[in-house]
Amino acid sequence: MLDLFLRALPLLQKAVLVTLGLGFSSFILGSALGMLVCLARISEIAPLRWFAFAYVSVFRGTPLLIQILLIYFGLPNIGLVIEPIPAALLALTLFSAAYLSENFRSGISGVDRGQWEAAWSMGMGYRRTLVRIILPQALRIAIPPLGSRLIALMKDTSLASTITVVELTRVADQLGASTFRYMDMFLIVGAIYWIINQILTLGQTWLETTLSRRYQ
């Protein structure tokens, strides 16, 4: 297996960068969009709440693979042609935003109601209270599910291989086909995914511990 790994190493190095790029980029963009959806979900404006609920319902209720295929193969039917990597990034962002919005919403809900009331009694408005008081505490509460979502998103990038994005899974499939050593290649790629996600898990644990000490 070592000889196969060394043979595949140049391709794997590029594929890891694509996988990490897709994972982190979609998480960052999805977090921004997810926060907007979250704020719409808890808004007092009914149409915003309905839109946010519908968005979460659609993107959590349908498979990510279907969403990727619709964006890549479906949008050209209405004149929108998107290259494989941007198409995968768009699908992963929209998909992750639905889950991340619920993670943010659970974090905000976990902040004691008294925090709102105390801020309002000091004359702070809704926006100022949200930004200065509520969100810092909500994000600390939401770190575990956010970390889990990032790890899941790194694994979800493997679905981008279905639209010819050359990431880890695609490389494993290509080299497996050319060498007839599918099992070895997928074991190698599986180990790489595991290493990436273990590093992310350690980072999440460190962040949780650091923030917990600050609030003790």
Account of the protein in words:
- The chain is flat.
- It contains eight helices and no strands.
- The longest helix has 40 residues, at 2-41.
- The protein is mainly alpha-helical and 216 residues long.
- Helix 1 runs antiparallel to helix 2 (46-61), helix 1 (2-41) packs antiparallel against helix 6 (126-156) and helix 4 crosses helix 6 (126-156).
Which key phrases capture this entry?
MetI-like fold; flat; 216 residues; mainly alpha
In short:
This protein has 216 residues and is mainly α. Helix content is 82%, strand content 0%. The protein has helices at 2-41, 46-61, 64-74, 84-109, 113-121, 126-156, 168-179, 182-214.
Output the CATH homologous superfamily: MetI-like
Which runs of at least 5 residues are low in confidence (pLDDT < 50)?
none
Helix content: over 70%
- The CATH topology is given as MetI-like fold
> What is the radius of gyration computed over CA atoms, rounded to a whole number of angstroms?
20 Å
How many strands? 0
Helix-strand makeup class: mainly alpha
The total of helices stands at 8
| Mean pLDDT across every amino acid position | 88
Q: What is the overall shape? A: flat
Transmembrane segments: 15-40, 52-75, 81-100, 185-207
Main location: membrane
Pfam family, one: BPD_transp_1
Membrane topology: Multi-pass membrane protein
